[in-house]
Amino acid sequence: MKRNKRDILERLNAGEVIVGDGGMVLQLERRGYVKAGHWTPEAAVQNPEAVRQLHREFLRAGADVLQTFTFYCSDDKLELSGNVTNITGAQINEAACDLAREVADEGNALVAGCVSQTPCYLSNRNETEVKSLFKKQMDEFLKKDIDFFIAEFFRYAEEAAWAVQVLKTSGKTVGATLCISPHGDMNGLPPGECAVHLVKAGADIVGVNCHLDPTACIQTVKLMKEGLDKAGLKGHLMIQPLGCQTPECNLTGYISLPEYPFALECRTLTRWDVHKYAREAYDAGIRYIGGCCGFEAYHIRAISEELRAERGFLPPASEKHGLWGAGLELHTKPWVRARAQREYWENLLPASGRPKCPSMATPADE
């Protein structure tokens, strides 16, 4: 399948839907390529075949953008982690760019160079020092063939704005997503004010990623949009939520849940949950719709399938998937054949299979 490889901003300005990719870090941890704790991305150098394969799965599922596997790849984070002693941040950044570009070109997707929050910000709030870390990563990305930048997974709007200011000096489009709840960032800044802060810093695309489920994230992005409208500012909206249900909607998200990080599977979104999410996000005016931790390739395929009319095509992965369970029409069991319809899956209330487990938990931050 050949895609239209126009600039991300040009496509969003034209009203197109952009499907993002899914979660790399959590998925690669489950596959044995990332060490839980500091979650650093040295696998881009040590196990490039694993990173390449995951990129390829997201591309096949319909992703228009592949993000570089560079989460937590600032020098201070790598040093703090202790996981990486003989590989530099520059080597990881460059390898990650090469892998994303190699796979993106197989389907004419875009490549986003990604930076994320730094330990330095929490330790000293030194703007010059924090910005120097972002500039170093940006310079490494600019040696490679990336299409635009994403500053993602920031708990503080101030640090995200510093990242945006640095990345905008590249002359490329910049997206910025915060891992915040409807309550606001960790300084108590409401989502609407966070969005204003980011757009004034130069962000072309703003939104949220990770930490909370689609319901909470859509609510947060709506609040961001309200803030921008009130301030008379323009910015495209982006959403890449957690692939788990978090009805607790707490301030710090899933990292405060007792199941984090090794027992989250019981909260995983179904593909039908993702159909609902994609439609609600689109109806809210969000046009960059993807996923973060917990979003697997079949979740990205569900976004692509739900928005197939708006996009005008289905992804290659849909060749092996009947829409709304249509493939079940050939099943030998009549009760399974009866499930080959949209109404069944839209109205299903799935059981957990764990009779002694609660439906919700008490987060550690409450």
From TrEMBL:
Domain (Hcy-binding) spans 6-307
Q: Pfam family of this protein, just one? A: S-methyl_trans
Pathway terms, separated by semicolons = Amino-acid biosynthesis; L-methionine biosynthesis via de novo pathway; L-methionine from L-homocysteine (BhmT route): step 1/1
The Gene Ontology terms for molecular function here are: betaine-homocysteine S-methyltransferase activity; zinc ion binding
Q: Which InterPro entries match?
A: BHMT (IPR051524), BHMT-like (IPR017226), HCY_dom (IPR003726), HCY_dom_sf (IPR036589)
GO biological process terms on file: L-methionine salvage; methylation
Q: What is the cofactor note?
A: Binds 1 zinc ion per subunit.
Cofactors that this protein relies on: Zn(2+)
PROSITE patterns for this protein: HCY (PS50970)
Cellular component per GO?
A: cytosol
The UniProt annotation places Zn(2+) binding at C210, C292, C293
Q: Which domain of life is it from?
A: Eukaryota
Keywords, comma-separated and alphabetical: Metal-binding, Methyltransferase, Transferase, Zinc
> Tell me, what does this protein do in biology?
Involved in the regulation of homocysteine metabolism.
The record describes its quaternary structure and partners as:
Homotetramer.
**UniProt-recorded name of the protein:** Hcy-binding domain-containing protein
Q: Which organism is it from?
A: Neogobius melanostomus
